[in-house]
Amino acid sequence: MRAEIFTPGEEPAPDGWDAFVRARKGCALWEESLLEAAAWGSPRPLRAGLVRDAGEPVAAFCGPLGLLPPTRRFAVPGRPRLPAWFQTHLPNSFSRGRMYAAELGPAARTAALRTFERALRRRLGARCLGVLHLDVERDELAEIPGTFTVRRATAPCSVLHNRWDSMDAYFAGLPRTRRRRLAALYERIGGDPGLTTGRVTAVDPVRASRLDQLTRMKHTRRPGATAPLLPVYFERLNSHPGAAYFAHRERASGRLLSLDLVLDVPAGWATTVTGSDGTRDLYLDLYLREIDRMIGAGVPAVELGPGMRELKESFGAVAVPRNAVAVPF
Asked: pTM for the full model?
């Protein structure tokens, strides 16, 4: 096996990258154009690699290098000031940055992973302390062996499995106090004559960028360091068949008030980028609109990501354990 490492946004992806990603039904964010747009707005440099066996792609990896530099205002953009860890994590998502061909068994997956790690070490040299594999679920742990690896449990991913045939059935399965509140919220916002609600395939890129940034600023200790997703990122998502948004808009002006990006994945849907103008009711209603559509379309499950576990469980989601595995160089 051999690996080809490239820098999204600066170098073209190896031949066969997008074809491999699409064959594996990877979400839109894996594609070269979206990795490129993510890299342009990322405060951390991105790297990716395609592993081949006998000339055929068998695995893909991507992620950022390092944490934000401690003296960011004096740092060269896109370059860590200090040696750092590379993280196998799909940018702007809650998903792992590791993808394998269907025919690879556990031993072959480990071999592909080690091939990528060796190539990354040669490419980055002393700038990289090792690889931190994020979003590792229980069945993948055995594929990342090593004498010096360190494993730690991280925040679980909340997943909502589709087990209803209507919204009435969904509400009926909730505890009474929760049922009353959410049903009333769903009816009130759905009946608001000043709003349009539901699934759309395109949003205003500038407004979406701002709503996403404002929302992330509310959930960080350093709001001033929150880099926005560039409008070009949303422009490219707008034209992608594997991406859609659940949104609220002002009916008269069409102004975007909230959004939640939903991506097609093999298990169903995965939510990622979200944003709202600060109205909590709209944020909660986004979950209900997604559940309504999930039931109607027969989508098996929706990955809601880590964080706010109690809130997501109140909508019926369950927690799937995840781990981080550090492989030092």
From this structure: 0.91
